[in-house]
Every structure is written in C-alpha cells, then in structure tokens.
Specification:
There is one protein chain. The protein has 433 residues and is of the alpha+beta class. The chain has helices at residues 120-127, 130-138, 152-157, 165-210, 267-273, 287-290, 341-348, 351-360, 371-374, 384-427; strands at residues 22-25, 30-33, 45-48, 52-55, 77-79, 84-86, 96-98, 103-105, 110-114, 159-162, 218-220, 228-230, 234-237, 243-246, 262-265, 277-278, 283-285, 294-295, 301-304, 306-307, 316-319, 325-327, 331-335, 367-368, 378-381.
C-alpha cells in the first residue's frame, strides 16, 4: 500500500507499508491516563531520549542525593508497566518510551495506555524513529526547541501504521534481539570513551586549579572546593571580569536550507557539536529571523542556558567564527577582555565549575541556568601569561585523547545509524516483506 496514493497530506510522510496493515490515528491506539499518587512513595521514573524509561534512583551518583527537587511527590502521575510515557517538551527528540516498571512520573509528562489487542512495545519503537520524531515536531506548539509542547490532542491526531498483533510481536522480538547485540557494542565503546573523558577531565581540572609548575608554592584557597592553589593566583567570580547577555529567540523550525542565509548557533549546538571552540557554524536563518536575535563577536564566550540534564547546563565554548553569526534563545553570551578566553572556557568546563552550575540550576524536566547564576561561579585565576601557557599545555596533553574519543564516537554514530535503519525497516514491514 502506498500512503501517498490516498491523497491525504496528513499521512503522506508514512511512505510505503504492507497492504494488509491498518492505518489509524493514535487516539484509536492509546488512551490518556491521569491517575495521581496519593502518597508520593511509588517508584519515581524518568524519561530520556538516551535511555527511554528508567528508575530515577538508578541515575543518582550517591545514595544520599535527593531523588527530586520537588518538596513532595504527591500528585505525580501514576504509571503502569507497558504504559507509554512522553516528555511533551522533548517528544520531538524521542524523549519517550514504554515503561518496564510500575511507578510514577512528573505531572508535566503525559501517560498513555494501549487500547485493544496491540503490543505497546511495537509503538514504542515506531514512535522513536526519525520519521515520527519529525512528525511530533511538526505537531508541537512553541517558539523555540526548549519551549515546544506536544499536547495530547495533537499527538492523538497523528496517524500510525498498525500491523496485525502477531506481526507486532514478531517485529518486537526481532528488534530486541538485534538491539541486544548493538547495545552491547555501544556500551563497551561508551565505557572506553568515559575512561578517556575522565583522563581528559583530570588534566583540565589540575591545570586550571594548580597550574603546570610542579614546584610552585601553594596556599589555602579558603574554599573546600579547590583546596590549595598557587600563592600568586586569585579567586574571582566570573561576573567580575565581564558581562552577560542572552541570545534571541530562534527555533529549529526557523532554520532554512539556504547556503546564502545568515548563520546562527543554537544552545543545543554548543553541547552536541563543539568542545572548547565554536568556529564552524552550519545553521542558517533568514534576515527577518536575525532581527529577533543577537549578533555575536569573535571571542565571545557562549554558555548553554538549557538542557535535558544538569551535565548539559552551562557548557562553555569560545566563539571564533569569522562570519556573521547570531545566537539563538537559551544561549548565554559572556563578553570580557580581561583574561584568555581559552583559559576561561577550560576553567568553566572543569569539574569544579560544573558542580557549581549543577547546584544552582533549576528544573526537573528541562534544566535552566542564567547569566545571574553563572556570574557567581568562582574559580582560581593565574596571571594572563600563565593562562596562555596552561592553555598550550592542555591542548598538547588532550590532543591524542580527543582524537581517540572522536574516532570512537564516529563508530558509535555509524552503529546507531544502522540500528535506526534496522528499526525503521522492521516497524514499517520491509524486513519481513
């Protein structure tokens, strides 16, 4: 069956699928559930496009960490095993999944239960494909990515392909078997990357807090966070060496496919595409869109103002592109001419700065930080000439590590592309045709 022959633009994006399969709106497949916790003691579940539905307590670094910033979990939405849970603010990037557990989740999420004789796991796989994530984005309401919402009425209006139940089961078993092999490969590669990143982070942490002179005299920093620092270094608040501004509202829906358009950088680009420097910009916007944004200057420091996790928050890169570029919403811009910009970027990406950003950020679903919070980040600073020597040292020491990380990340991306293609083939009936 060819969906485009039905002369309905609402289903043209589905493409080809077996002729004996049905095509139904999601409202005929799932019903929304809104039962609330009366005690707040059920298992708290989290939703991520990385891991699907997981127990929140499993992501805590320490047993003493708070499982939630909320004062009480009474009123959280109850979830039953096999329910579909969607973070409606991040549905467009696949932040959803079929729950393997009974529990509860944020009242800002939506919980849906399968209708009739269907396998919910089939639709869990279907809804995380690129084609459905694109459709979720098209049906989401909002100005910029961090403000998008996929409300239930829009979600229910979307069409989905529906194989017979026995084929749904067969597809799910096939995908799970293939996923197990692929996920094991990815897990091993990620473990290797994490070891490399820990090594890299240690090099940066040591360099920006005690320097590279092994014989330097040390003094107490007066801060438990740092311990001893070189006697000639000083502790400074970031806000004392520059000023913060904020990017303008640019959403991914406003990006254009025109090489002659005006360049733009969005907050998501900072924590997914760049390490310490942002110099190659690929996003393009119209001149009209640029009027609502902020033009960047070479040497500006850019921070992420929003993210799905606290690890994404406040990442800092130096803007060094030669072209005219505008900053999108939730990009926090820092302008200064006191210290070496590279040193500040390394310093602000140290574990000591990350910790301060994490404890000052706000939000359980989308985490936010602001210039007013970032200005309070304290770090040790050496004289500027020493900053430059430290930057050179860090670049030399981390070069081999960065190359190894990049190579391994490419291997992971290639296997993920293979996995995505495998899932699409299976859920659209092409694997078993």
């Amino acid at each position: 069956m060819i969906a485009t022959e039905l002369e309905n633009t609402k289903i043209a994006w589905l493409g080809n699928f077996p002729s004996h399969w049905k095509m139904l709106r999601i409202k005929n497949l799932f019903q929304e559930m809104d039962s609330r916790s009366e005690t707040g003691t059920e298992e708290l579940l989290s939703v991520s496009h990385y891991t699907g539905i997981t127990r929140k307590r499993e992501s805590l670094d320490n047993e003493d960490d708070h499982i939630s910033n909320a004062a009480s979990l009474v009123g959280y939405k109850l979830v039953e095993k096999d329910d579909l849970v969607i973070n409606i603010m991040l549905a467009w990037n696949g932040s959803l999944g079929i729950s393997p557990y009974n529990g509860m989740t944020s009242p800002a999420y939506c919980v849906y239960r399968i209708i009739g004789d269907n396998n919910p796991e089939y639709f869990g796989f279907l809804f995380t494909t690129k084609m459905f994530k694109a459709e979720f984005r098209r049906n989401s309401t909002g100005i910029i990515d961090s403000r998008l919402r996929l409300y239930s009425d829009k979600f229910f209006s979307i069409f989905a392909v529906v194989p017979p139940k026995e084929e749904q089961d067969k597809i799910v078993l096939y995908i799970k078997a293939q996923e197990e092999k692929i996920n094991l490969f990815i897990q091993k590669k990620i473990q290797f990357i994490n070891l490399l990143k820990e090594q890299r982070q240690t090099i940066i942490n040591d360099a920006v807090t005690i320097g590279i002179d092994k014989n330097v005299k040390l003094k107490s920093s007066g801060r438990n966070l740092f311990g001893n620092i070189p006697t000639h270094w000083e502790i400074r608040r970031l806000g004392t060496i520059g000023r913060f501004t904020k990017g303008g509202n640019i959403s991914r829906s406003e990006l254009i496919d025109d090489p002659n358009g005006i360049s733009a950088i969005l907050y998501g680009d900072i924590y997914t595409k760049y390490d310490i420097v942002a110099d190659s910009i690929i996003n393009k916007i119209s001149e009209e869109t640029s009027l609502n944004s902020i033009k960047l200057e070479k040497g500006d420091l850019l921070f992420t103002g929003s993210g799905e996790t606290k690890e994404d928050i406040g990442k800092c890169v130096v803007f060094l592109a030669d072209e005219m570029v505008y900053a999108g919403g939730d990009v926090v811009i820092f302008k200064q001419n006191v210290f070496d910009s590279y040193f500040i970027s390394y310093s602000q990406n140290s574990s000591f700065a990350k910790y301060q950003k994490a404890i000052s950020s706000k939000g359980d679903i989308i985490v936010h930080t602001y210039g007013s919070k970032l200005s309070d980040i304290i770090m040790p600073y050496p004289p500027i000439e020493e900053q430059k020597r430290i930057v050179t040292y860090i670049k030399q020491e981390t070069d081999t590590i960065d190359k190894a990380i990049a190579k391994t990340e490419l291997e992971i991306e290639l296997i993920k592309e293979y996995k995505e293609a495998l899932i699409i083939e299976a859920v659209m009936g092409k694997k078993f045709a």
